[in-house]
Design goal:
Blueprint (H helix, E strand, L loop, with lengths): L1 E5 L20 H12 L7 H10 L4 E2 L17 E6 L7 E5 L13 E4 L7 E6 L3 E5 L1 H14 L3 H14 L6 H18 L3 H14 L5 H21 L3 H15 L5 H26 L3 H14 L6 H11 L2 E6 L14 H10 L1 E2 L1 E7 L2 E6 L2 E5 L5 E6 L13 H10 L10 H6 E6 L4 E6 L13 E2 L15 E6 L3 E6 L1 H6 L8 E6 L3 H10 L4 E2 L4 H7 L5 E5 L4 E7 L9 H9 L3 H9 L9 E2 L29 H21 L10 E5 L3 H16 L4 E5 L14 E6 L4 H9 L10 H11 L4 H18 L3 E6 L2 E5 L2 E2 L16 E2 L3
Parallel strand pairs: 8-19, 8-20, 24-25, 24-26
Antiparallel strand pairs: 1-6, 2-4, 3-4, 3-7, 5-6, 9-16, 10-11, 12-13, 13-15, 14-15, 17-18, 18-19, 20-28, 21-28, 22-26, 22-27, 23-27, 29-30
Helix pairs in contact: 3-4, 3-5, 4-5, 5-6, 6-7, 7-8, 7-9, 8-9, 9-10, 10-11, 18-20, 19-21, 22-23, 23-24
C-alpha cells in the first residue's frame, strides 16, 4: 500500500489512513487519491480529477511505462522511476532522487519518496509493492551506451558529460568513456576527419592507456601518417613539424611507425634545405642562404651543423627581418602622423636634432653634428661642430651651410619654414669654423626642439633626398622592403657584424606577426597590439619592451564637408563614439594596459598623474561620454541651423552626405574604424570606410572627409602647431586656436608653457579641430638572439647600427 504524508505536519503518523474505496485496489490509484486530497478535491468529482491527472501526466501513470523523451531527458529534473507490481495495482512514478542508489537485497519495510510535482507531500510504499527502480545514473548509462552502439555520438555526448560531471567514480564509467572515444575516432577516420580522429585517439590514450592499447597505438600511427601527409601536401610544414615534435615527445617509447617515417622525411627535407643553403652561400646569394638555413633548422632543430651554418652565414652577411603592421612608402624621421615613415625614415636619414626621450622639462635632444649650449639668460643657442667624432658623410658638414639651413627654416618662402622657429630667432651668426650662434627674440625653454630637420645628402654636396643614415633602399615590394647597408657604412664597419640588410616584412594582422616572431621567421616586431604584448611577456625566448612615448589617436577632418565644418556636428560625432568600449574591448581585448586611456584633448596625458610627459594635458577636463541620444540631437540641430542659414540666403539647404572615414592600411586602425562606423550608423549617419594605400597615413584631396590618425605628439610645445596650425594636420583657421598657439610660442618659462598649453587643451576640447580618441602605449618585441637594441628607444631603428645577431 502507498500512503501520503504532508511535509508541513509537525508529527509523522506511524500509520496512514487507508485509501478511498474507489482506489484501494491499485497502487497508482492510491497516489491519485492522495493527490486529489492534497488539492482539496473529492474522489467522486471526475472532472477535476481528470484535470489533475492530466497535469501530472509526466510524473506518474496508472499503467505502462513513461514515454521515452530522447534528448529531452536532459531538460528534466534528475529523478528515479519507481515501477509497481501488477499485484499492487501497477503503474509508475517519477520521484526525486532517492537516498539509496541500489535496491536492497532484504526488501522489507517501506520506502519513502516524493513524486515530482508534489513537493509538499511525502509518499510511503511497501517494498513488496515495488517491482523495480530505474535509477537516474543507470538510465544515463543506458542512454549513453545505446547511442554509442548506434554510432550516435552527438546524442551520446551530453549524457556522458553529465555522468562524468555528477558521477565521476561510478563503476564502469571509464570503460563507457573509453568506448565512446574509440568508436567516435573510428567514425571520424572513416569520414576523413583525420585531425579530429587523432585528437580523439590521443585523448583516449591519455585517459585510458591500457584500453585496447595495441589497437589504439596502431590507429594513432596510421592517423598521424595521414595527417602529416595532408599537411605536407598543403605546404603547412611548420604545423607538421610542430605536430611531429609533440608526438615524438608523447609517444617516443612506443616506436610508432609514423613517427619514425616522418622523422626521416623531415630529416631528409632539412638536409636538402641545408645543402641548398650551402650552395646559395657559395654563390654569395646570402639572402637565400640565410632563409634556407633557417628553414632547415626549423624542420629539424637537432640537425647536425644547423646552428653553426646559420651563424656562419650571419657572420658573413648579417641580416635582420623586421615584422611590421604598416609598410613605409615615404621616409621621414620627423613625420608626426605616419608611424611607418617615421620608423623607416630613421634608417635612411638623420635628424639635425633627434629626440632621445622624455625628461622632467621637455624632451631630451641630441645634436647630430656635435654639442650645444644655451646661455644662462636662454637667449643664445650655441651649436658646436665636433667633426672628428663623425663618420662620412656627416663629417663633411660645412659651418656656413649649417647656418644657411637654420636661416632658411625662418624664411617664409622656404620649404623648411617653421613659424615657431621664425618667431623665436632674430639672428644667426658664425663664430669661427665650427660654431654657429642663434640669437633668440626672447628666452625659450627648449629651442632645440624647434630644429628637428631631416638631414639628407644634399647637405654634403650629394643628391637631394639621398640617404645620410647607415642604410639605403634596396628594393620595395608589396609585402617586403629591403634596406641595404651603404658602401660607406660597410667600409667603416667591415668587421663589426652590423646587419648588412634590414628587411621589413608586412604582416596582415597582429596575430600573424606574433606567429612569425615565435617561429623565427622574423627577428623583431616593431608594433604590438597591447593584448599581444601582455601575452608575449611570459615568453623566455622573446623580450617585450614599451616605447617610452605614447601615440595619440584621433580623427582629423580633411575635406570641405559642410557638416564637418560645424562644431555642433563634430561634437555629435564624438558623443556618438563609445571610446571606452572600443579601446578596452576591441583594442585591449579587456586586458589591463597601464597608460592606455581615453582622452579629452589632442595632447598626451602621460602614464600617470606625475608623468612629466603630460605637461600639456589638463586632467580636470573629462572626456565626453558616449551619449547617442545627445549625438542624434546635435545632428538634427546642425541640420536645422544649416537649413535656416540657407533659407536666409535663399539657397538650397545642404544635404547630409555620407561621411568617408579613411584609415591607414593596418589592422589596428581597421578594427577601430569599423567599430566607429557601426556606432555612427546607430545614430543615423551613413559612413563609408576608405582604406588608404599602403604606406599612406593621410588621404589625397577629395577622397575622404575624416581620417583616423595615430600621431606622435612627443613635444607639445612645437607639435601643437604641427597638429592644429593652418599648415598642420588639422589646418585649423579657428581664431581661438590661432591665439592659443601664438600665446604658447611667446611663453618665456616652463610655467607659462604649461599654463598656455592647458588653455589650448581647453580650447581644443571646446572647438574640436580634431576629435581626440585615446592614448596608446606601444611596444616592440624581439628574439633574444638579437642584441644591441638599447633601452627606452623612441624609434625602433634608433640604435640599428648597434644591432648584432648572437647564437651563443
Amino acid at each position: 500500500m502507498i500512503h501520503r504524508q504532508n511535509r508541513e505536519q509537525t508529527t509523522t503518523p506511524t500509520s496512514a489512513p487507508p485509501a478511498p474505496p474507489a482506489t484501494r485496489c491499485r497502487a497508482f490509484g492510491r497516489i491519485v487519491a492522495c493527490a486529489v486530497f492534497a488539492v482539496g478535491l473529492v474522489a467522486g468529482v471526475f472532472g477535476p480529477l481528470a484535470a489533475v491527472a492530466h497535469a501530472q501526466l509526466l510524473t506518474y501513470a496508472e499503467s505502462g511505462e513513461p514515454e521515452d523523451p530522447g534528448l529531452g531527458l536532459l531538460q528534466e529534473e534528475p529523478h528515479d522511476i519507481i515501477y509497481f507490481t501488477e499485484a499492487s495495482g501497477g503503474g509508475w512514478a517519477k520521484v526525486r532522487l532517492l537516498p539509496i542508489r541500489e535496491i536492497p537485497s532484504d526488501r522489507k519495510g517501506t520506502l519513502r519518496f516524493s513524486i515530482l510535482g508534489f513537493e509538499t507531500d511525502e509518499f510511503v510504499a511497501k517494498w513488496g509493492d515495488i517491482d523495480r527502480i530505474d535509477f537516474w545514473e543507470k538510465r544515463l548509462e543506458r542512454e549513453t551506451a545505446e547511442r554509442i552502439a548506434a554510432d550516435d555520438f552527438t546524442g551520446a555526448y551530453p549524457f556522458l558529460s553529465i555522468l562524468i560531471r555528477d558521477y565521476p567514480r561510478r563503476k564502469g564509467l571509464d570503460e563507457l568513456r573509453a568506448n565512446f572515444l574509440w568508436r567516435n575516432a573510428i567514425q571520424r577516420a572513416n569520414n576523413r576527419e583525420r585531425a579530429e580522429s587523432l585528437a580523439m585517439l590521443e585523448e583516449l590514450h591519455r585517459f585510458a592507456p591500457d584500453f585496447k592499447q595495441s589497437q589504439v597505438l596502431k590507429a594513432i600511427s596510421l592517423t598521424t601518417g595521414a595527417v602529416m601527409q595532408s599537411l605536407v601536401d598543403e605546404g603547412q610544414l611548420d604545423t607538421a613539424q610542430q605536430l611531429l615534435a609533440r608526438l615524438k615527445q608523447d609517444y617516443g617509447n612506443f616506436n610508432l611507425d609514423a613517427i619514425g617515417k616522418w622523422d626521416g622525411e623531415f630529416l631528409k627535407m632539412a638536409q636538402e634545405k641545408r645543402q641548398e643553403a650551402i650552395e646559395a652561400a657559395r654563390q654569395k646569394d646570402y639572402r637565400v642562404a640565410r632563409k634556407l638555413a633557417r628553414e632547415s633548422l626549423y624542420l629539424k632543430p637537432d640537425i647536425s651543423g644547423g646552428k653553426e651554418l646559420i651563424q656562419k652565414i650571419d657572420q658573413v652577411y648579417p641580416l635582420v627581418n623586421v615584422g611590421v603592421l604598416q609598410s613605409a612608402r615615404v621616409y621621414d624621421p620627423v613625420r608626426m602622423d605616419n608611424w611607418a615613415a617615421r620608423r623607416a625614415g630613421r634608417l635612411l636619414y638623420r635628424t639635425l636634432f633627434e629626440i632621445q626621450g622624455a625628461a622632467p622639462e621637455g624632451g631630451e635632444y641630441e645634436f647630430l653634428f656635435g654639442s650645444t649650449q644655451t646661455t644662462p639668460d636662454r637667449q643664445v643657442l650655441e651649436l658646436n661642430l665636433e667633426l672628428e667624432k663623425l663618420q662620412t658623410p656627416l663629417s663633411e658638414i660645412q659651418v656656413d651651410y649649417l647656418a644657411d639651413q637654420l636661416a632658411m627654416r625662418a624664411d617664409p618662402e622656404s620649404e623648411t619654414y617653421f613659424s615657431p622657429w621664425a618667431a623665436a630667432v632674430i639672428g644667426i651668426g658664425i663664430d669661427g669654423p665650427r660654431r654657429v650662434e642663434c640669437v633668440l627674440r626672447r628666452p625659450h625653454v627648449l629651442p632645440t626642439c624647434l630644429l628637428q630637420l631631416k638631414v639628407d645628402a644634399s647637405w654634403f654636396g650629394g643628391e637631394e633626398d639621398g640617404p645620410t643614415g647607415d642604410y639605403r633602399i634596396g628594393s620595395v615590394e608589396d609585402a617586403e622592403s629591403r634596406f641595404v647597408l651603404t658602401d660607406q657604412a660597410r667600409q667603416a664597419n667591415s668587421d663589426s657584424g652590423k646587419p648588412r640588410e634590414i628587411v621589413e616584412i608586412r604582416c596582415d594582422s597582429g596575430s600573424e606577426a606574433v606567429s612569425k616572431l615565435l617561429q623565427g621567421e622574423i627577428d623583431v616586431l616593431d608594433q604590438l597590439f597591447p593584448a599581444d604584448a601582455l601575452r608575449l611577456k611570459s615568453r623566455r625566448d622573446v623580450k617585450v619592451v614599451e616605447y617610452p612615448l605614447p601615440t595619440i589617436h584621433m580623427l582629423v577632418p580633411c575635406s570641405d564637408h559642410e557638416f564637418l565644418a560645424d562644431k555642433n556636428f563634430r561634437r555629435a560625432l564624438l558623443y556618438g563614439i563609445d571610446r571606452e568600449d572600443i579601446l578596452k574591448g576591441e583594442l585591449l581585448e579587456n586586458l589591463e594596459s597601464p597608460g592606455c586611456k581615453v582622452l579629452s584633448g589632442p595632447f598626451p596625458a602621460g602614464m600617470d598623474l606625475n608623468d612629466p610627459l603630460g605637461y600639456a594635458y589638463d586632467p580636470s577636463i573629462l572626456p565626453r561620454r558616449f551619449e547617442p541620444s545627445l549625438a542624434q540631437l546635435l545632428v538634427e540641430l546642425s541640420k536645422t541651423l544649416k537649413t535656416t542659414a540657407a533659407e536666409k540666403k535663399k539657397e538650397p539647404a545642404p544635404k547630409l552626405r555620407p561621411i568617408r572615414l579613411a584609415f591607414p592600411a593596418d589592422n589596428l586602425s581597421r578594427v577601430a574604424c569599423e567599430a566607429i562606423r557601426s556606432q555612427w550608423q546607430l545614430i543615423g549617419l551613413e559612413v563609408e570606410l576608405v582604406q588608404l594605400p599602403v604606406g599612406r597615413s593621410f588621404p589625397e584631396p577629395d577622397t575622404a572627409d575624416i581620417v583616423y590618425v595615430s600621431a606622435a605628439i612627443w613635444e607639445p610645445i612645437i607639435d601643437a602647431r604641427r597638429l592644429l596650425g593652418p599648415r598642420g594636420l588639422a589646418k585649423s583657421e579657428d581664431q581661438l586656436i590661432g591665439l592659443g598657439l601664438r600665446r604658447l610660442e611667446e611663453a618665456r618659462n616652463w610655467r607659462e608653457v604649461r599654463d598656455r598649453l592647458l588653455d589650448l587643451h581647453a580650447i581644443s576640447h571646446h572647438e574640436l579641430p580634431v576629435l581626440p580618441l585615446w592614448q596608446m602605449v606601444d611596444s616592440y618585441a624581439y628574439r633574444r638572439n638579437l642584441t644591441g637594441l638599447g633601452s627606452r628607444i623612441v624609434s625602433l631603428y634608433q640604435n640599428a647600427g648597434n644591432w648584432r645577431l648572437d647564437f651563443d
